[in-house]
């Protein structure tokens, strides 16, 4: 006979009074018991919070959609607080008729809904020279995955009438950083969205309210927030974010440019350093995320022994193009230490490389575009740590 469980036999506080009624929380918040599930920054990474980054708590999330309040933030000039009443989007340059759209104008164009990941090119950048940050929130948390509602950029460009000499567009933000990026016209006409909703509600100020550019599969820097102007031109502009930044310095001192597409990548989100195994040996669930800027993820492999043996993981949830995919591996843990890794295969047949294989080609000078395989070492107590093995 076991002792009675007070969680069952005792009257709990919440059974002894009436709860708050409707309208007590006109815009809801998570339970107070989830207060630790927040975006976090790494204070030593940047000098100032207005030109900085914080990270999505991937280790606490499941499924494929990132809740709006937890989408990582990356600002070059702080959060711009635009008034939608005075919002204007200009299209100028090599067009037949330069146009200015208000918010109301944009809402009269046919719109689309699509789920896409946004990954900063600098995601995992701090791991180039070795294991550094202890948690997938910090190693992989410069990513979010959202259902966007927006107008295809193609429709707005067609309205302005793109000249035959045009080959590029410049997207410009209305924030204090006035961030700009050159984008090939082909991409702009293909699948870019001028988005105003995320996961059904208005974009959050942090994510570019009222309007941001969505550039599916391509590095996050190009997804200009607080979008105010699209200039059409015949060559790239060579601005700051595509020259001194967001280029990949190679071992011979030259830099790769215009590496826009995000290569296939994956990470085990639990167990991970911030999400140790809370129980002993026995049945357990391993889970993680995989994505590719080139398509979908038909397959993810996982290993518990540092790559000696691989098993195909179980995918669960919708498989959208250029979106996060969720995988699981359900197994019986024998209680012995593990070296956990995941390896993504994308729909083009590309397989996620090891960090060593990446460094062989790219050297050690890079920051951007690190899609190498991540290793977590788990000890007998279920505590996980960021390590590298070769
Ligand atoms: N757009 C503007 N106007 N200003 C910015 O600072 N940061 C860029 C991009 N768009 C930025 C911007 C970078 S580097 C990234 S990774 C993404 O926005 C981050 O988007 P998020 O804040 O929604 O995560
Ligand atoms: Co970025």
Count every helix, treating DSSP H or I runs of 4 or more residues as helices.
6
Oligomer: single chain
Order of strands across the main sheet: 4-3-12-7-8
Rg, Cα atoms, Å: 23 Å
- Total domain modules: 2
What is the CATH-assigned architecture of the largest domain?
Alpha-Beta Complex
3D structure, described in words:
- The structure is a single chain.
- The protein has about 400 residues and is mainly β.
- The protein has two domains: about 180 residues, Sulfite Oxidase, Chain A, domain 2 (Alpha-Beta Complex); about 120 residues, Sandwich (Immunoglobulin-like), CATH 2.60.40.
- About 10% of the residues lie in helices and about 30% in strands.
- It has six helices and 23 strands.
- Strands 4-3-12-7-8 form a five-stranded mixed sheet. Strands 5, 6, 9, 10 and 11 form a five-stranded antiparallel sheet that branches. The chain has a five-stranded antiparallel sheet with strand order 18-17-21-22-23, with no helix packed on it.
- Strand 22 and strand 23 form a beta hairpin.
- The chain binds ligand MTE and cobalt (II) ion (CO).
- Ligand MTE binds next to strand 2.
């Amino acid at each position: 006979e076991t002792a009675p469980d007070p969680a069952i036999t005792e009257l709990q506080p919440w059974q002894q009074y009436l709860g708050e009624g409707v309208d007590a929380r006109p815009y809801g918040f998570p339970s107070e018991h989830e207060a630790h599930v927040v975006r976090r920054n790494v204070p030593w990474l940047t000098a100032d919070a207005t030109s900085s980054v914080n990270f999505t708590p991937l280790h606490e999330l499941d499924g494929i959609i990132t809740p709006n309040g937890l989408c990582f933030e990356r600002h070059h000039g702080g959060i711009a607080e635009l008034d939608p009443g005075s919002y204007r989007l200009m299209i100028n340059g090599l067009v037949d008729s330069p146009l200015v759209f208000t918010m109301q104008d944009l809402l009269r164009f046919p719109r689309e809904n699509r789920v896409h990941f946004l990954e900063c090119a600098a995601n995992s950048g701090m791991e180039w020279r070795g294991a550094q940050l202890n948690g997938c929130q910090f190693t992989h948390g410069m990513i979010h995955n959202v259902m966007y509602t927006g107008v295809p950029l193609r429709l707005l460009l067609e309205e302005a009438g793109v000249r035959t000499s045009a080959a590029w567009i410049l997207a410009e933000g209305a924030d204090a950083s006035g961030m700009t990026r050159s984008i090939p016209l082909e991409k702009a006409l293909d699948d870019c969205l001028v988005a105003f909703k995320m996961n059904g509600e208005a974009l959050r100020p942090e994510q570019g309210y009222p309007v941001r550019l969505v550039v599916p599969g391509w590095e996050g820097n190009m997804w200009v927030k607080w979008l105010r102007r699209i200039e059409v031109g015949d060559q790239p502009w060579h601005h700051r974010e595509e020259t001194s930044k967001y280029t990949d310095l190679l071992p011979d001192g030259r830099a790769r440019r215009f590496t826009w597409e995000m290569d296939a990548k994956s990470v085990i989100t639990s167990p991970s350093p911030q999400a140790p195994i809370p129980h002993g040996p026995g049945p357990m669930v391993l889970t993680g995320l995989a994505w590719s800027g080139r398509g979908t993820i038909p397959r993810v492999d996982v290993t518990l022994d540092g790559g000696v043996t691989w098993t195909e993981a179980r995918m669960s949830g919708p498989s959208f193009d250029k979106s996060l995919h969720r995988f699981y591996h359900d197994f019986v843990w024998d209680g012995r230490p593990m070296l956990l890794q995941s390896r993504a295969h994308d729909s083009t047949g590309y397989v996620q490389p090891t960090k060593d294989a990446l460094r062989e080609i790219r050297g050690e000078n890079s920051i951007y575009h690190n899609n190498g395989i991540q290793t977590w070492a788990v000890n007998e107590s279920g505590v996980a740590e960021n390590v590298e093995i070769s």
